C-alpha cells in the first residue's frame, strides 16, 4: 500500500499555562484521509494539543508555546501566518454543540458569509451539500429557516459539523464530540465520520475507548503532557508496546 501523505506534522511541542507545563515535547504526525484518536486520562493535555492545531490557545493569557507545527508543510506559528485562513483549513467541533441562535440555514453558511459569499444559489448548494455530508439533511430539509436551537443535542452537533464542512476544510478537529449525546446520536456521528474520512483528515479526542477502536485508524496515547505511544489503533488496543498504555486501555487507571 502506498504511504499516506502527512497533512499535519508537529515536532517537540511544549505549552505552558503560566508556570505549569501542560505539554512536554509532543511530536505527532497526522495522515491524510485517516481518523486519528487522541486518548488518555483527564488533564493529560489532549484538548490543549488539539487546540494548538488551529491556534485556539492564542488568546489564553500567559500561554507560552514552543516547537513546530506544520499544516501542509507550512509553519502555522510563523509570524504573519493568516489565522483566519488556517481555521478555514482546520475546522473544529467542540464537546458541547454550539450552534448560533440563528436558523439552521444561517448556521451552516456562517463561514461563507464571513468570506463574503452572497450568491443565493451557491449558498443553497453549500447548505444542502454540507447537511448531507453531516448526515442530517433528511431531518432538517423542510425546516431550514427554523432556529438551530430548536433541534436536539445530537442534531445540533451535526449542524455544527455541517457548519465546519461548508467552508471546505482539509482537517476536522473534534474534541469529545459525542460525550454530551445519547448512544443513538453518538452512533450517527461515528458513522458520519467514517463516511467523511475519504475526503478529510480527522483528529478526535475521545474518552470512549470503544469509540476510538471503532472509528480510528491510528491512536495516540497521552499521559501527563507526553505522548507515550502512537500506532495503528488495533495495535494500541490489542498489543501496545508500553505498560502505561496497557494499564490505561484495560481500565487500570485513568
Ligand atoms: N486555560 C487554562 N489555564 C490554565 N491551565 C489550563 C488551561 N486549560 C487547561 N489547563 C490545564 O492543562 C492541563 C491539560 O488540560 P487539557 O484540557 O488539555 O487536558 P485533557 O487531556 O483534554 O483533559 P480532559 O480529558 O479532562 O478534557 C490540565 O492540568 C488543565 O488543568
Automatic annotation (TrEMBL):
Residues 8-249 form the ABC transporter domain. GO terms for molecular function: ATP binding. InterPro entries: AAA+_ATPase, ABC_transporter-like_ATP-bd, ABC_transporter-like_CS, P-loop_NTPase, PstB-like. SMART domains: AAA. Keywords: ATP-binding, Nucleotide-binding, Phosphate transport, Transport. PANTHER family: ABC TRANSPORTER I FAMILY MEMBER 17 (PTHR43423:SF1). NCBIfam families: 3a0107s01c2 (TIGR00972). This is Phosphate ABC transporter ATP-binding protein PstB. The gene is pstB.
